[in-house]
Amino acid sequence: MLDILQYSFIQNAFIASFFVSVVAAIVGYFMLVRGLTFAGHAFSHVGFAGAAGAVWLGINPIYGLLAFTIAAAIGIGSLGKELRERDITIGIMFTLALAFGALFLFLYTGYAEEAYSILFGTILGISAVNVVITAFFSLLTILVVILLFRPLLFSSFDPEVAEARGVPTQKLAIVFLILAAITVSVSVQVVGVLLIFTLLVGPAATAMRLVKGPYKTIGLAITLGLLYSWVSIFLAAETNLPVSFFIATLSFGVYLPVRLLAKTNI
Amino acid sequence: MLSKAQNKLRLYREFINSSVHDSLRYNIHMPEQSIINLQNVSLTLGQRTILHDISLIINEGEFIAILGPNGAGKSTLLKLLLGLYKPTSGKITVLGKTPKRGNNEIGYAPQHRTLEADLALRARDVVGFGLDGNQWGIALPDKKRETHIEQALDEVDMKHLSDMPVGKLSGGEQQRLLIAQALLTHPKILLLDEPLSNLDITNAQSVVALITKIAKNRKMTVLLVTHDVNLLLPAIDRVLYVANTHSAIGKSEEVITSEGLSKLYNSPVEVIKTKGRVFVIGEEH
């Protein structure tokens, strides 16, 4: 079973999914406590347009993903608090993005495989260059989150008191949206646009119901995220079925009994 | 790294101790020291005048209830003291300085929604925000930090619940938690916005008793926004009534009168006193 590890594309998949699982679990935790999961969903759809546009222009899709999602983050961030928290504003923005994504795919006359990999991820086909890009942006995001950790948590929980205590809550909100955009972009490579929640929200939501306190919760979320993606790569390599199918199934399969049975926090 | 943090905490403690001594000395030599001073303060937000030409002085160690109809600017007044709003005109001094955000000498608990059950935070995490939530980086494991947090929880009689998820706490317990959080920087002024609004009478009374006890022990000035003054009547020194962009401050029996409030509201208001309780009739809501 372990002999699959000798293939370089499998090695790449393990390395890239390591970084993605860690960053998605950490940022996913903050997206949950800040009530931003819907924005995460929107980013993935905006990212779809970016990736499709890049494919049409013959550029590496990860650059399209990053450019579009970061632009969306700055856009949502500068809307101001009231508008930002309205799902309808974000909803309308990402519908427009989807329309552009459809247009770009129509203009691109290549294989349908490209569209498929944006929608559902192709971690087993990730290139060495993209592994490096993924590692770089993941580490950068993790580093910034560590640096901002306490004010970010404080302002997620109680923005008014945090502001009174001198935390720059508005600026933090925009910085965090950019970090979320980057996280969505690198995660799309593993699970695709449509299954983004399985790595972003699944591990953190499960961990929250099992342990108490932010540090333990994030620690467990990372462990779960890594477990889901690595086990899934093994299963996919053995069965030739899609990786993202296994990740989503594991993520849901663990969350469901925890949601139904764990009494810890609710 | 750790020893640096410990050193910081030691200095911090010494600072706290010395400032407690100072305030004790002040109280012996100067019993009436002004701590909050508003001179002709007005505030306009957008098109709306919230406060107009307000002047008042609050002295060190006073317990003040802030009253008035909804939307009269009670919470806004607290935000002016915190430096979250700047007055359109007039001058505010708090502890001898113009208000600026990030002032550790003011503890603040805003009008509070129910703490979300899904947040997966423990009581000690919430209180910890008050200690170092505004500092960069992650909190390293630190015995002294935990001791500080536990002392604060003990002061509000919540030590036995320190590992409890906040979503499981009752309204009264959550309110105590937010007070503990506000106390962690050892403030000289405590601003509480509607701390009694979601509590039943028994819980509200025990929170009032707790605030009174802590304020006395720490020689702290307290400004508390409330809808119903009756629970507070035995505890407070004066009331500050805000209505119709104006304000009146004084002993409750001087301020809460039919004549006084009618003048403040600029419309007829009747005050009924019965069995030691006060009711204001004819308030616009």
Keywords:
heterodimer; A: 266 residues; mainly alpha; ABC transporter involved in vitamin B12 uptake, BtuC; globular; B: 285 residues; alpha/beta; Rossmann fold; 8 helices
Radius of gyration of chain A: 18 Å
Helix percentage of chain A? over 70%
Distance between the termini of chain B: 55 Å
* Residue-averaged pLDDT of chain B: 86
Structural class assignment of chain A = mainly alpha
Counted up, domains of chain A total: 1
Poorly predicted parts of chain A? none
Q: Write the CATH homologous superfamily of chain B.
A: P-loop containing nucleotide triphosphate hydrolases
Structural class based on helices, strands and sheet pairing of chain B: alpha/beta
CATH topology of chain A: ABC transporter involved in vitamin B12 uptake, BtuC
Count the beta strands of chain B: 11
Taken in chain order, the helices and strands of chain B follow as: HEEEHEEHHHEHEEEHHEE
The CATH class of chain B turns out to be Alpha Beta
CATH topology of chain B: Rossmann fold
Helix content of chain B: 25-40%
Overview of the structural elements:
The complex is a heterodimer of chains A (266) and B (285). By secondary structure, chain A is an all-alpha fold. Chain A has one domain: ABC transporter involved in vitamin B12 uptake, BtuC. Chain A contains 13 helices and no strands. In chain A, helix 1 runs antiparallel to helix 12 and helix 2 runs antiparallel to helix 6. Chain A is globular, with a radius of gyration of 18 Å. The N and C termini of chain A lie far apart (41 Å). In chain A, 52% of the residues are buried. The mean pLDDT of chain A is 91. In chain B, the strands form three sheets. In chain B, strands 5-6-7-3-8-9 form a six-stranded mixed beta sheet, sandwiched between helices. Chain B has a three-stranded antiparallel beta sheet with strand order 2-1-4, with helices on one face. In chain B, strands 10-11 form a two-stranded antiparallel sheet. Chain B starts with a helix and ends with a strand. In chain B, helix 6 links the parallel strand 6 and strand 7. Chain B has a single domain, classed as P-loop containing nucleotide triphosphate hydrolases (Rossmann fold, 3-Layer(aba) Sandwich), CATH 3.40.50. Chain B is globular, with a radius of gyration of 20 Å. Chain B has 285 residues and is α/β, with parallel strands linked by helices. Classes of the chains: A mainly alpha (266), B alpha/beta (285).
